[in-house]
Amino acid sequence: MPTTVLLIRHPESAWNRRGIYQGQQDIPLSPLGRIQAELVAARLSRENVAGIVCSPLQRAHTMAKAIGRYHHLTPVPDERLTEISHGPWEGLSREDCEVQFPDLFRSWTEQPHAVTFPEGESLQHVHDRAMPVLESLLSRPEDETWVVATHDTVCRLAVAAAEGRPVTGFSDVNLENAGITTLVGPRLRNSVRQVNDVEHLGEHRVNLGAQAL
Fold first, then answer.
1. Domains of the chain in sequence order
2. Hey, which residues are catalytic here?
């Protein structure tokens, strides 16, 4: 049997809640996010998890540690799983970015795959550093389940790549905080079995429309 990867977007952060671009800033979870982290951990307590890999940023690492408690596992941080660097946008709201960077904001809204943030990254940069992590796990010969706790951009790019539309398919993927996407190996292409499972969250879901993504 091939390896399964449970790909999870981190729970709501304090800046998600306020509609601020956070990128690689190390922002903690919001009170709702802390609840979501425990709900994900409880949901996955029934899984036979072999290992946990996560972004080193605390909004992903906190959830990874909560999951790990049920399985006596220590999450392994991997810098390649960090969020996209938004450069000068980090710490600004959508409204601020639209006023201060009108052309870049329009491009990010209409053609995000064509944008490279000043002193930051492009979607292609994130794809090139993060997808090998998933490919490596999915290609493992053992019948195992691994958890990957990461960020919106990484998760959306993974789904797009699995559907054969790396980078350009990014805009068509919407994933909620603490939603679980199931990938089954042996490779990333055609690996998606379920996208954005949020049944475990119940009433504790978020409004994506209020977030800066």
1. 4-151+164-179+191-198 (3.40.50.1240)
2. 10, 151
